[in-house]
Amino acid sequence: MAWTIAAFAAAGWAFAFDSGKWLSERGDDSDAVRLREVYDRRVPEITQPAENVVFPIETNPDGTIKSRLRAGKAYVFLDSGFVWGADVVVEQYEAGGKTATGTLTADNCIVDRKTKTGWVPGNAKIVWGETSVAGRGVHFDLGREYVKIFANTRIESDALGGKGVKDALGGVAPREAGKRNPKPAAAGGKKKAEIVAERTDYDHKEGVVLFDRNVHLDDAEYQMATDRLFVFLEGTNSLRRLVALGNVAITNGTKRARCAKATYARKTGKIDLYGDERAKARLEDVGGKKAAVEGDRVTFWADSEQVEVEDAAVFVPAFGKSGKKGLGL
Q1: For residue 165, what is the enclosing H or E element?
Q2: Quick check: helix, strand or coil at residue 63?
Q3: How far is CA 106 from CA 6, 87, 88, 150, 314, in A?
Q4: pTM for the full predicted model
Q5: Which of helix, strand or coil describes residue 137?
Q6: What span, in angstroms and rounded, lies between the C-alpha atoms of 200 and 188?
Q7: Whole-angstrom Cα distance, residue 285 to residue 22?
Q8: DSSP three-state, residue 34
Q9: Which of 70, 91, 79, 89 lies closest to 38, judged by CA?
Q10: If we measure between CA atoms, which residue out of 66, 269, 286, 6 comes closest to residue 171?
Q11: What is the residue-averaged pLDDT of the chain?
């Protein structure tokens, strides 16, 4: 399902950055196309690559390393400034050049030292703090701290878990129930949240992650399936807000929800479910109470479990259907 920039802005989701500009730039894949073409054209020209190479890609004004490439094999195209590497580790450093803030590992890649961008035709993994992103067909921009992954995306992070989401809805997405087995908890007993999608845009500097097409979020206590998922991070370290768009399904085994759009704000613990012209938003208890509510908009507060519904329909097996609002599930 396609979601335009106008629709995203019209929904009233205003953030501290220019969302329209961000989405517009996100759609510009011209540099990825350029680097992919350079890779396909120039790599066959390589004859005698150097071994065990380390060299800087970018330096700070004081001369310290801002980013560098280490490779088992490397080749510098002197006529253009492009660098090819195999068994590659690209490291990004904080000011002063002492502590690595992020790393990219790849089987091979090509880097444009002029633009500080690169292309990985195969598999790559990017790690920033406690968050790791992996996929195939990767474009990275070291200056913007921006990564585009075009296939087989998988991200794992402590930052993506949200207590309010777990308490309120959580669980196994209904359309995926029984198809995927929960991953065991990591050492220490806490399982990282994991998201898979066909494509991912990870803007580390802005603290924005966009997952696109066939998105599945798997947490220790809940799962979500949707067409598109925006994750907004607080200082790039913790979850601030989720916005899911298209065919949203969320559940924790006792409660489940289906809607066209869903938003979650960690600060308030509020979850809003929105219907569309095809179907109303639906929240139901599939545990002991066996009750459900439907409406154009269903709002759920995780702390109190209070529910408010616009244009409500309430379903209680013992009494049938009513229009009463504010059913507590």
Answers
A1: helix 163-168
A2: coil
A3: 37, 6, 5, 15, 53
A4: 0.79
A5: strand
A6: 28
A7: 38
A8: helix
A9: 79
A10: 286
A11: 79
- Arithmetic mean of pLDDT, 298-314: 73
Query: How far is 274 from 236, CA to CA, in rounded Å?
Result: 27
Beta strands 208-218 and 199-203, pairing class: antiparallel
237: exposed, middle or buried (Cβ count in 10 Å: 0-12, 13-18, 19+) = middle
Query: Which helix (H) or strand (E) element contains residue 168?
Result: helix 163-168
pLDDT for 317 equals 57
CA distance 62 to 51: 29
In the block, residue with structure tokens 């490291």: 91
For residue 16, give every residue at least 6 positions away whose Cβ sits within 8 Å of its Cβ, in sequence order, or none: none
Cα gap 65→223, rounded to integer Å: 41
Beta strand 82-93 with 65-77: parallel, antiparallel or unpaired?
antiparallel
Distances (CA, A) of 143 to 112, 135, 140, 248: 12, 21, 9, 34
